[in-house]
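Hey,
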Amino acid sequence: MTSLTSTAPGCPSGMAPAAEKATKTGYAGFVRHVGDENALDLVVRGAKCGGCLSKIEKSVSALPGVTQARLNLSNGQMRVRWKGSLAADRIAQTVSDLGYGVAAQAADQGAVNKAREERSLLISMGVAGFAAANIMLLSVSVWAGHGEMGEATRQTLHALSGAIALPVLLFSGRHFFRSAWAALSNGHANMDVPISLALSLAFGVSVFETFRGGEHAYFDAVVMLCFFLLIGRFLDARLRRQAHAAANALAAMQTSAVTRVDGNGEAVSVAASDVAAGDHILLAPGERAMVDMRILAGTSDVDESLVTGESIPRTFSPGMVLHAGAINVSAQLRGEALKAVEDSLLSQIGEMLEAGEQRRSAYRRIADRAVSIYVPFVHTTAALACVGWLLLGASLPDALMIAAATLIITCPCALALAAPVAQVVAAGRLFRKGVYLRSGDAFERLAEIDHIVFDKTGTLTLGTPKLNSILIGDRQLEARSQEASRLLSDAARLARASHHPLSRALVSAAGVGAAAENVKEIAGHGLEAELDGMIWRLGSAAWVGAEADGEASGPSLWFSRGDEPEVKFQFTDDIQPGAREALDTLRDQSISLEIVSGDQNASVSALANSLGISDWTGEAKPKDKVARLEALRTQDAHVLMVGDGLNDAGALSLAHASLAPGAAIDISQSASDAVYSGGMQAIPLVLKVARKTRAIMRQNFALAAAYNVIAVPIAVTGNVTPLVAAIAMSLSSIIVTLNAMRLQIGE
């Protein structure tokens, strides 16, 4: 790995890396050539907020020839593309000169680093918690013996507490000290600066009091504060590591081997990344396409559910374009690669995911705005208190004691807890209702929702075809009639030889039974077997010789036996249980509804009419869904996207907020803010809880501010000791926690 790094500016909840030296020519070997452009992937460390992101992207974009500079805050990965002779080292140096760590390394190293950081925080938190419990035992002894305990005994107990607290402060507190030092070194301030000052001054005052035989020491408050703050830092690190899981999962789909036909006509297995436009590819039954390709030979049914959301396979034949992510179902296909894997549809969806993560990372949350006001206020107040008392003739220890009390009493515990504690309580309430929240900061975005875009299959409908009716000509058979049962049983004998979704649905309706022997499956047509001296066929209308009715009545299978009349098995995709009630509740909340689906226009239209949704779009590709969301964004709509397929992943990530059902694929779940189970009734519940959570968070910030307005004058006038300040600080945290507990109340 080649790297050049400097300490990073401080950001809320950020942790800066250690300084590293730059190498002069280490980045040229990492440059890739994509068409007529050069590409370089970097890992940036220390960037934690929207301000950092904007500064880095603008500086790199200003370099000559740069056409793209995109930083993903979730995983720290930055992609730069440029034309011309710009040196890769200059790009890295530009980022480093801004005060951020930068390195060129393997794509998966970011996840490894995040896991290492999370593990380090967990260990530090455990050490601080264990030490806090032991120091508290010693402190209880001092409190219990107040007025009766001898000075020597008290001083010994304080010394033991200090001996425990010092290594813990150096080890567990390093996360705050490093971040604070990095911020100050680059002329910035972050929340870790007052935290570090409070920890250091409280420890220093405690040491001073111990040596002079004072009654009070605050080692327990120092370690306890460190422990509680590390809990929040650990949870934040875990959320950040999970945030880019969707992109990682999608990347894993593109690493499989591909069968390429070389110039001698031999089939060779190669990595998907080695495929170039124009290469000939063989796609076996059951294999997923890794690149976009045009079919040259072969006819087969292809499952495009991950790409378009359409649950019924489509027949592909020579001349048609098959997109990456689709699965070949029935017969071998030979095609010509249209693009390299990094330019395929899967890669485009990956870029959508990164863009969505970037946009959400730059979203200014309530806490970010509060921090920008709070940090300079605390610094100025503590400094003025110290200087003021020195000018009034106080001794340096007394002035520092007052400054420490000011920092402790205004310590950002209540502010730091204002949003997280509300989010944790709300997330617990939703979890009990079958909703798993993936992103704590989603509550603020969910509270702003005024428009919802639904996918169709698997979201509004069950996504599984179900036999609805059996017809002979214009005559519909009674479901339980002897004739219908006989025809269903006979057709199922053929269907048991196929894995086609409609065949599976037919077999499910027929139940247990025998399978016909020597059944042939003709890709794009259907099944055929010779039984009882006749040719039996099950498949498309053309395959059995029937005339398609052209009605938009959903998917169907046709069945024929010799010269007997053709039978039509009509299927439907049932609406999710409770969907109508959930949609009515959303309308009562003044939220507008829309369907954007990759399914055929006819089925989308029928569903929209059934649910009373006037705005709908069918046959939408992934980029069409994203384009629709962008159009709604320009209209100042705050859109919630609800979807379950790979074709929804980009839209889920780019939406203002997003939800995925529990049956959704892993990538869609990772790209969403929350995953729900138990039906669509969870959607209006999530929005209701989100609005209440936002109100509680704002109340908590107001309470924290009011507390400081009252506490600061008392502290700066020297009317409280650091011990009283620590108690007051703890009470402020308890108040915001109790206020957040009100989120547990309500249906």
